[in-house]
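User: Let's play a game. I give you a shape written as tokens, and you guess the letters that built it. Ready? Here's round one.
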């Protein structure tokens, strides 16, 4: 059975916020740049607390940044 997926719009939000770099976002939310890379590629599912920190950074609700896709 295929795993469920969580998609996101982090890359678009970064560019909409003065072209914030992956490193700047990582520094703001307390994770590594590599974590942001993996999130944007859809290869990593964030913890709930990380998802909330990312959403807050962009002044968005979690469900405006992340979308759950059941398979």
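Assistant: Ready! My guess for every position:
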């Amino acid at each position: 059975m295929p795993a469920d997926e969580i998609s996101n719009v982090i890359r678009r939000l970064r560019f909409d916020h003065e072209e914030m770099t992956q490193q700047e976002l990582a520094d703001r939310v307390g994770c590594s740049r590599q974590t942001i890379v993996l999130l944007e590629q859809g290869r990593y599912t964030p913890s709930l607390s990380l998802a909330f920190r990312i959403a807050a950074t962009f002044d968005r609700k979690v469900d405006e940044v992340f979308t759950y896709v059941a398979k």
